[in-house]
Design brief:
- Helix content is 44%, strand content 15%.
- The radius of gyration is 19 Å and the shape is globular.
- The protein has helices at 16-29, 45-49, 61-71, 84-89, 91-111, 146-165, 191-201, 220-232, 253-263, 276-281, 290-296, 304-321, and strands at 8-11, 34-38, 53-55, 75-78, 116-118, 121-122, 169-170, 172-174, 176-178, 204-207, 214-219, 244-245, 249-252, 268-271.
- The protein contains twelve helices and 14 strands.
- The longest helix is centred in the first third of the chain and has 21 residues, at 91-111.
- The model has no long low-confidence stretch (mean pLDDT 97).
- Strands 3-2-1-4-5-7 form a six-stranded parallel β-sheet, sandwiched between helices. A three-stranded parallel β-sheet has the order 6-8-12.
- The chain has two domains: 8-176 and 219-245, NAD(P)-binding Rossmann-like Domain (Rossmann fold), CATH 3.40.50; 178-217 and 249-286 and 301-321, UDP-galactose 4-epimerase, domain 1.
- It has 322 residues and is of the alpha/beta class.
- Bound molecules: 2-amino-3-ketobutyric acid.
- 2-amino-3-ketobutyric acid (AKB) binds at residues 83-84, 122-124, 147, 174, 176, 187-189.
């Protein structure tokens, strides 16, 4: 049986996933029971005024201790991370934030016997020698990016805390996440979000990966559902803990542009690959998520057409308000 979650801290709450996850957790657990924490980036008004907000550098364990103790936190969704593209620009910082931050969170959770920790992983754990279509649950993990290295090490560290200390740590390997609320920052899959903004604002997008680049992607409502579902799953049913493969949809950059064109007929897209192409080429095209389906009933709702329609509807309203 899993213990009940009552008081939550979300690190990285100002980020793409953190901001929508915080809003969703506040609806579910009550605004006062979900503390959002961000570091440099200014929070939106909704995030800052929608419940408690704290400034927090996850590299500093004492800051985490203070926030956890001040708010009586029992569960941490640890979303703060440096993503793949920025991680290649600043590999030392990526190691400090991703590994140092996770180690601090796990230690604070172990010392205080917290109920649960969510530690997100990514398709970046896979490398060029992983079978790409689909990537199995447990192939050899040999990523070629610093972000991927920290995600493999993070999965192993989380699983170690489960085995060695009995701490309930859980995580999924997120694909590229597409959303209309907060822009992603510093990832390789960011083109799949930028393309919508540029299509609506300018009718043209210069894409930084080749037209035939296929990557696993997921729409934000599915991402939030998966994050909450894995954290609510019955612990006794879990064979895996920190490394669940998670699939939504897979498409090429060209197929995404074609789908957008159905809604914006004059939209044009050109492809000028940059350094991020190498990262994209090292990741799989599709994901086998049988373990997540079997162990906690994972099932995505959105495919390419339904995601595109919803994105365009939300973003058109957002852009016309500005
Ligand atoms: C990135 O592109 O770095 C992230 C990820 C797939 O983890 N979106």
């Amino acid at each position: 049986m899993s213990k009940n979650i009552k008081k939550i801290l979300v690190t990285g709450a100002v980020g793409q996933i953190g901001s929508e996850l915080t809003a969703s957790l506040r609806k579910r657990y009550g605004p006062q029971n979900v503390v959002a924490a961000g570091h440099h980036t200014e929070p939106s008004e909704a995030l800052r005024d929608g419940g408690p907000f704290e400034r927090l550098d996850v590299k500093d364990k004492e800051q985490i201790e203070r926030v956890v103790d001040r708010h009586n936190i029992d569960t941490i969704f640890h979303m703060a991370a440096i993503l793949s593209a920025v991680g290649e620009e600043r590999p030392q910082l990526a190691w400090q934030v991703n590994m140092g931050g996770l180690y601090n969170v796990l230690e604070v959770a172990r010392e205080r016997n917290l109920v649960r920790v969510f530690s997100p992983s990514s398709i970046a754990v896979f490398g060029p020698d992983t079978p790409a279509d689909p990537a199995p649950q447990a192939p050899p993990l040999r990523p070629t990016t610093m972000y991927g290295v920290t995600k493999v090490a993070g999965e192993l560290l989380g699983d170690y805390y489960v085995r060695r200390f009995g701490l309930d740590v859980r995580g999924v390997r997120y694909p590229g996440i597409i959303s209309s609320e907060t822009l992603p920052g510093g990832g390789t899959t960011d083109y799949a979000v930028e393309i919508f903004y540029e299509a609506l604002r300018r009718g043209h997008y210069t894409c930084f990966v080749r037209e035939d680049t296929v990557l696993p992607m997921m729409y934000m409502p599915d991402c939030i559902q998966a994050t909450i579902d894995v954290m609510q799953a019955d612990r006794d049913r879990l064979i895996h803990h920190c490394d669940f493969n998670l699939a939504g949809m897979s498409f090429s950059a060209g197929e995404l542009a074609q789908e957008i064109k159905k809604h914006i007929p004059n939209f044009t897209c050109e492809y000028i690959p940059d350094k991020r192409q190498d990262i994209a080429d090292s990741w799989p095209r599709r994901i086998d998520d049988t373990a997540a389906r079997n162990e906690w009933g994972w099932k995505p709702l959105y495919d390419l057409p339904s995601m595109t329609e919803d994105m365009i509807s939300h973003l058109s309203k957002k852009i016309s308000r500005v």
